[in-house]
Write a structure and sequence with these properties.
20% of the residues lie in helices and 27% in strands. By secondary structure, the protein is α+β, with helices and mostly antiparallel strands. The structure holds succinic acid (SIN). Succinic acid binds next to strand 16 and strand 17.
Length: 279
Protein backbone atom coordinates (compact mmCIF):
# COMPACT_ATOMS: atom_id res chain seq x y z
CA UNK A 1 0.00 0.00 0.00
CA UNK A 2 1.36 3.44 -0.95
CA UNK A 3 1.84 5.89 1.90
CA UNK A 4 0.04 9.23 1.90
CA UNK A 5 1.23 12.44 3.58
CA UNK A 6 -1.51 15.04 4.03
CA UNK A 7 -0.89 18.46 5.65
CA UNK A 8 -2.97 19.08 8.78
CA UNK A 9 -2.86 22.90 8.78
CA UNK A 10 -1.15 25.57 6.66
CA UNK A 11 1.77 25.85 9.07
CA UNK A 12 2.32 22.60 10.96
CA UNK A 13 1.75 18.88 10.84
CA UNK A 14 0.93 16.12 8.39
CA UNK A 15 -1.07 12.94 8.73
CA UNK A 16 0.61 9.84 7.39
CA UNK A 17 -1.56 7.06 6.00
CA UNK A 18 -0.88 3.60 4.62
CA UNK A 19 1.96 2.65 6.94
CA UNK A 20 2.23 -0.05 9.59
CA UNK A 21 5.18 0.76 11.83
CA UNK A 22 4.89 -2.50 13.77
CA UNK A 23 6.67 -4.05 10.76
CA UNK A 24 9.97 -3.26 9.07
CA UNK A 25 9.56 -0.53 6.46
CA UNK A 26 11.69 -0.10 3.35
CA UNK A 27 14.43 2.54 3.05
CA UNK A 28 12.44 4.70 0.62
CA UNK A 29 9.42 4.89 2.95
CA UNK A 30 11.70 5.69 5.89
CA UNK A 31 13.27 8.53 3.86
CA UNK A 32 9.86 9.95 2.96
CA UNK A 33 8.84 9.91 6.63
CA UNK A 34 12.06 11.67 7.69
CA UNK A 35 11.63 14.33 4.99
CA UNK A 36 7.98 14.90 5.94
CA UNK A 37 9.01 15.19 9.60
CA UNK A 38 11.53 17.94 8.80
CA UNK A 39 9.16 19.74 6.39
CA UNK A 40 6.01 19.62 8.54
CA UNK A 41 7.55 19.52 12.09
CA UNK A 42 4.91 17.05 13.32
CA UNK A 43 3.55 13.77 12.00
CA UNK A 44 0.38 11.95 13.06
CA UNK A 45 0.37 8.24 12.27
CA UNK A 46 -2.94 6.68 13.28
CA UNK A 47 -4.00 3.10 14.02
CA UNK A 48 -0.61 1.73 15.03
CA UNK A 49 -0.80 -1.49 17.04
CA UNK A 50 2.57 -1.46 18.76
CA UNK A 51 4.04 -2.69 22.02
CA UNK A 52 6.99 -0.89 23.64
CA UNK A 53 9.77 -2.61 21.58
CA UNK A 54 7.87 -1.97 18.34
CA UNK A 55 7.37 1.67 19.33
CA UNK A 56 11.14 1.92 19.96
CA UNK A 57 11.84 0.49 16.50
CA UNK A 58 9.39 2.99 14.95
CA UNK A 59 11.04 5.89 16.79
CA UNK A 60 14.47 4.76 15.50
CA UNK A 61 13.32 5.59 11.95
CA UNK A 62 13.72 9.23 13.01
CA UNK A 63 16.70 9.15 15.38
CA UNK A 64 18.36 7.65 18.43
CA UNK A 65 16.26 7.19 21.62
CA UNK A 66 17.84 8.64 24.76
CA UNK A 67 17.09 8.20 28.44
CA UNK A 68 14.53 10.65 29.92
CA UNK A 69 15.44 12.57 33.01
CA UNK A 70 12.78 11.31 35.48
CA UNK A 71 13.78 7.62 35.74
CA UNK A 72 10.75 6.66 37.85
CA UNK A 73 8.51 7.00 34.77
CA UNK A 74 10.62 4.72 32.54
CA UNK A 75 9.33 1.22 31.75
CA UNK A 76 11.48 -1.25 33.74
CA UNK A 77 12.05 -3.57 30.75
CA UNK A 78 12.43 -0.78 28.18
CA UNK A 79 13.89 2.22 30.03
CA UNK A 80 14.05 4.39 26.89
CA UNK A 81 10.23 4.33 26.87
CA UNK A 82 8.58 6.44 29.58
CA UNK A 83 4.94 6.81 30.57
CA UNK A 84 2.89 9.98 30.70
CA UNK A 85 -0.10 9.27 32.88
CA UNK A 86 -2.82 11.21 34.68
CA UNK A 87 -2.44 8.80 37.64
CA UNK A 88 1.01 10.13 38.62
CA UNK A 89 1.06 11.40 42.19
CA UNK A 90 3.33 13.71 44.16
CA UNK A 91 4.91 12.46 47.42
CA UNK A 92 1.99 14.16 49.18
CA UNK A 93 -0.45 11.98 47.17
CA UNK A 94 -1.75 14.71 44.88
CA UNK A 95 -2.37 14.08 41.16
CA UNK A 96 0.59 15.43 39.19
CA UNK A 97 -0.11 15.78 35.46
CA UNK A 98 2.99 16.80 33.55
CA UNK A 99 3.26 18.92 30.43
CA UNK A 100 0.17 21.06 30.94
CA UNK A 101 1.74 24.42 30.07
CA UNK A 102 3.65 25.38 26.92
CA UNK A 103 7.16 23.92 26.81
CA UNK A 104 9.73 22.10 24.71
CA UNK A 105 11.23 18.92 26.14
CA UNK A 106 14.49 18.80 28.12
CA UNK A 107 15.67 22.25 26.98
CA UNK A 108 17.83 22.44 30.15
CA UNK A 109 20.24 19.96 28.55
CA UNK A 110 23.27 21.17 26.54
CA UNK A 111 22.08 19.02 23.63
CA UNK A 112 18.28 18.94 23.93
CA UNK A 113 16.32 16.20 22.12
CA UNK A 114 15.53 16.84 18.48
CA UNK A 115 12.20 15.06 18.69
CA UNK A 116 9.66 13.51 21.02
CA UNK A 117 7.14 10.86 20.11
CA UNK A 118 4.02 9.74 21.95
CA UNK A 119 1.93 6.61 21.46
CA UNK A 120 -1.63 6.69 22.82
CA UNK A 121 -2.26 3.63 25.01
CA UNK A 122 -5.39 4.55 27.00
CA UNK A 123 -7.51 7.70 26.70
CA UNK A 124 -10.39 9.41 28.46
CA UNK A 125 -13.69 9.24 26.58
CA UNK A 126 -13.44 12.96 25.78
CA UNK A 127 -10.90 15.78 26.12
CA UNK A 128 -7.17 15.49 26.87
CA UNK A 129 -6.06 16.86 23.48
CA UNK A 130 -2.48 18.07 22.97
CA UNK A 131 -1.56 21.41 21.32
CA UNK A 132 1.60 22.23 19.34
CA UNK A 133 2.76 25.63 18.10
CA UNK A 134 5.21 26.06 15.21
CA UNK A 135 7.95 28.41 16.39
CA UNK A 136 9.41 28.80 12.88
CA UNK A 137 6.10 30.15 11.57
CA UNK A 138 5.90 32.33 14.68
CA UNK A 139 9.42 33.67 14.02
CA UNK A 140 8.58 34.50 10.39
CA UNK A 141 5.57 36.51 11.55
CA UNK A 142 7.32 38.49 14.31
CA UNK A 143 6.65 42.21 14.16
CA UNK A 144 9.83 44.16 13.32
CA UNK A 145 10.28 45.62 16.83
CA UNK A 146 10.05 42.19 18.46
CA UNK A 147 12.39 40.60 15.93
CA UNK A 148 14.98 43.31 16.60
CA UNK A 149 14.66 42.66 20.34
CA UNK A 150 15.05 38.86 20.18
CA UNK A 151 17.78 38.49 17.54
CA UNK A 152 21.07 37.68 19.30
CA UNK A 153 19.55 37.03 22.75
CA UNK A 154 20.65 34.04 24.84
CA UNK A 155 18.22 32.29 27.19
CA UNK A 156 19.33 30.42 30.31
CA UNK A 157 17.30 27.20 30.78
CA UNK A 158 17.29 25.27 34.06
CA UNK A 159 15.34 22.31 35.41
CA UNK A 160 13.11 23.12 38.37
CA UNK A 161 10.57 21.04 40.21
CA UNK A 162 7.30 21.88 38.47
CA UNK A 163 4.83 20.34 40.88
CA UNK A 164 3.92 23.89 41.83
CA UNK A 165 5.28 25.87 38.88
CA UNK A 166 6.10 29.44 39.87
CA UNK A 167 5.00 32.15 37.48
CA UNK A 168 7.46 33.30 34.84
CA UNK A 169 7.91 36.55 36.77
CA UNK A 170 8.72 34.69 40.01
CA UNK A 171 11.26 32.43 38.34
CA UNK A 172 12.94 35.29 36.57
CA UNK A 173 13.04 37.34 39.76
CA UNK A 174 14.72 34.43 41.58
CA UNK A 175 17.56 34.25 39.04
CA UNK A 176 20.56 36.43 38.36
CA UNK A 177 22.48 37.02 35.17
CA UNK A 178 24.78 34.03 35.60
CA UNK A 179 24.40 30.80 33.62
CA UNK A 180 26.21 28.62 36.18
CA UNK A 181 23.05 26.81 37.27
CA UNK A 182 21.62 26.42 33.81
CA UNK A 183 22.39 26.02 30.14
CA UNK A 184 22.42 28.95 27.73
CA UNK A 185 20.86 28.53 24.27
CA UNK A 186 20.25 31.11 21.56
CA UNK A 187 16.67 32.37 21.67
CA UNK A 188 16.58 32.26 17.88
CA UNK A 189 17.97 29.01 16.54
CA UNK A 190 18.55 27.76 13.01
CA UNK A 191 17.20 24.33 12.15
CA UNK A 192 20.21 22.10 11.33
CA UNK A 193 18.32 20.21 8.60
CA UNK A 194 16.33 22.86 6.73
CA UNK A 195 18.06 26.10 7.74
CA UNK A 196 14.82 27.70 8.96
CA UNK A 197 14.99 30.08 11.94
CA UNK A 198 12.68 29.60 14.89
CA UNK A 199 12.11 30.89 18.40
CA UNK A 200 13.65 28.42 20.85
CA UNK A 201 11.70 29.25 23.99
CA UNK A 202 10.67 27.06 26.89
CA UNK A 203 8.37 29.20 29.05
CA UNK A 204 8.55 26.52 31.76
CA UNK A 205 12.36 26.39 32.01
CA UNK A 206 13.79 29.72 30.87
CA UNK A 207 15.11 31.52 33.92
CA UNK A 208 16.30 34.68 32.20
CA UNK A 209 17.75 36.23 29.08
CA UNK A 210 21.37 37.17 29.53
CA UNK A 211 21.95 40.87 30.02
CA UNK A 212 18.29 41.72 30.58
CA UNK A 213 16.54 42.80 33.78
CA UNK A 214 14.12 40.26 35.34
CA UNK A 215 11.08 42.44 34.67
CA UNK A 216 11.90 42.83 30.97
CA UNK A 217 12.62 39.07 30.69
CA UNK A 218 9.22 38.15 32.12
CA UNK A 219 7.43 40.64 29.88
CA UNK A 220 9.30 39.39 26.80
CA UNK A 221 8.52 35.70 27.53
CA UNK A 222 4.87 36.52 27.97
CA UNK A 223 4.75 38.56 24.75
CA UNK A 224 6.51 35.81 22.77
CA UNK A 225 4.20 33.07 24.08
CA UNK A 226 1.15 35.18 23.28
CA UNK A 227 2.44 35.73 19.75
CA UNK A 228 3.61 32.14 19.10
CA UNK A 229 0.42 30.46 20.28
CA UNK A 230 -1.92 32.39 18.00
CA UNK A 231 -4.36 29.94 16.36
CA UNK A 232 -2.66 30.13 12.94
CA UNK A 233 0.54 28.58 14.37
CA UNK A 234 -1.19 25.86 16.42
CA UNK A 235 -2.31 22.31 15.72
CA UNK A 236 -4.54 20.56 18.28
CA UNK A 237 -4.52 16.79 18.24
CA UNK A 238 -7.58 14.83 19.30
CA UNK A 239 -6.14 11.47 20.35
CA UNK A 240 -7.36 8.02 19.38
CA UNK A 241 -5.85 4.82 20.80
CA UNK A 242 -2.97 3.69 18.58
CA UNK A 243 -2.03 7.22 17.47
CA UNK A 244 1.70 7.83 17.19
CA UNK A 245 2.60 11.52 17.04
CA UNK A 246 6.19 12.65 16.54
CA UNK A 247 7.27 16.30 16.61
CA UNK A 248 10.36 18.40 16.16
CA UNK A 249 11.39 19.98 19.48
CA UNK A 250 13.77 22.30 17.62
CA UNK A 251 10.85 24.29 16.24
CA UNK A 252 7.75 23.38 18.29
CA UNK A 253 6.39 23.97 21.76
CA UNK A 254 3.52 21.89 23.10
CA UNK A 255 1.12 21.44 25.99
CA UNK A 256 -1.40 18.86 27.21
CA UNK A 257 -4.97 19.83 28.08
CA UNK A 258 -6.59 18.72 31.35
CA UNK A 259 -10.24 19.20 30.35
CA UNK A 260 -11.31 15.59 31.02
CA UNK A 261 -12.55 13.28 33.74
CA UNK A 262 -9.59 12.23 35.88
CA UNK A 263 -11.39 9.04 36.90
CA UNK A 264 -10.58 7.87 33.36
CA UNK A 265 -7.03 6.76 32.59
CA UNK A 266 -4.98 8.82 30.14
CA UNK A 267 -1.75 6.94 29.40
CA UNK A 268 0.77 7.52 26.65
CA UNK A 269 4.20 6.06 25.99
CA UNK A 270 6.90 8.64 25.32
CA UNK A 271 10.31 8.38 23.63
CA UNK A 272 12.72 11.26 23.07
CA UNK A 273 15.39 11.31 20.36
CA UNK A 274 18.93 12.66 20.67
CA UNK A 275 19.56 16.19 19.40
CA UNK A 276 22.48 18.56 19.14
CA UNK A 277 23.47 21.92 20.57
CA UNK A 278 21.20 24.69 19.27
CA UNK A 279 22.88 27.29 17.01
C1 LIG B 1 4.46 15.92 27.05
O1 LIG B 1 4.55 17.08 27.43
O2 LIG B 1 5.43 15.32 26.58
C2 LIG B 1 3.12 15.20 27.15
C3 LIG B 1 2.04 15.81 26.35
C4 LIG B 1 0.71 15.15 26.60
O3 LIG B 1 0.53 14.50 27.64
O4 LIG B 1 -0.18 15.29 25.77
Amino acid sequence: MAISITPLTDTIGAEVGGVDLSRLIDAETADRLRRAFVDRALLVIRDQKMDAPQFLAAARIFGEPVRQNLAKFNLPDHPDVATISNQEKTNAGKINVRGVSWHTDHSFQPEPPKATTLLAVSLPSRGGDTDWAHMGAAYDALPDDLRAEVDGLEAVHAFTDTRVPPSVAERIAAGDDDASDGVAHPLIRTHPENGRKSIYLNPLRVRRFRGMTPGRCAALIERLVRHATRPEFVYTHRWRPGDMVIWDNRCCIHKANTDYDFQELRLLYRIILAGDRPH
